[in-house]
Structure formats: C-alpha cells, structure tokens
Design brief:
With about 90 residues, this protein is an all-alpha fold. The protein is about 70% helix and about 0% strand. It is built from three helices and no strands.
C-alpha cells in the first residue's frame, strides 16, 4: 500500500484584500520553511528509502537510484499537473 503526503497552499479567489493576505501568509510560510527545512525533509526521505529497501540492497548506490527515480517521477507529475490545471508558472 502506498501513502502520499501532499502539502500545498493556493491563493483564494475573491477580492484583492483576500489575495493580498493570502500572498503575505505564503511569504511568511516561505520564510519559516527555508532551505534548512527542505534539507531535513530530503534527508528524512533518503533515510526512509534506505529503511524500505530489502536488506541485500541497502547501500548508497541503490538508495541513490531509488531516490532519483522517485524524485524524477514526482517532478514529472508536478509538471503534468501544472500544465493540466494551469498552475506552477
């Protein structure tokens, strides 16, 4: 069974004031979740991949191969979804 965690934030439709507040909230979120947060998330994903591999495949080359495969798939999906829904520009 596969699980997926998705975190996203979109700007609400409506008047300019609502959009301005949402944009400010996104800026605050960006400041809070900077490069350090991303680095920790990537390191956690690498560790989870290592733990998920069968014991005989737990080595740096196998982990790198699988992490790159998963990241490539996620980026492809991101681009396809952005094109389909007109977001991500």
């Amino acid at each position: 069974m596969a699980y997926s965690n998705v975190h996203s934030m979109t700007l609400p439709s409506g008047d300019d004031e609502n959009r301005k507040e949402a944009a400010e909230a996104m800026d605050q979120m960006r400041n809070m979740f900077g490069p350090g947060h991303v680095d920790q998330a990537v390191r956690s994903a690498i560790q989870a991949c290592w733990m998920a591999l069968p014991k005989e495949r737990r080595n740096a080359d196998e982990v790198e191969k699988e992490v790159r495969r998963i990241v490539d798939r996620a980026l492809t999906n991101y681009r396809e979804d952005a094109a389909a829904f007109g977001r991500g520009d």
